[in-house]
Amino acid sequence: MVEQVVPHEDWIVGKHGLLNIHAFLHEGHTEIEYRGRRTPFQWQGYHYQDHDDEPFFPLLTTTGGFVEGDMTEFYAVLDPDTRVLVVGSEASKFYDCSEGKTSREIVKVTVGPRSLFEYHPGMAIPYRRSRVERSTQIFIDNSSKLFASDMLSAGRIYYGDEIFQFDSMISSFEVVVNGSRYMIDRLIATDRQHIDALNNLWNGAYHMCTVIGYAPDLPSNIEDSVYENCNSIDGVEVGVSRIGNMVVVRILGCETWQAREAIFRAWEIMRPSLAGKPAAPIKSGSSPIGM
Question: Taking the domains of the chain in order of start, what are their residue ranges?
Answer without folding.
Answer: 16-207
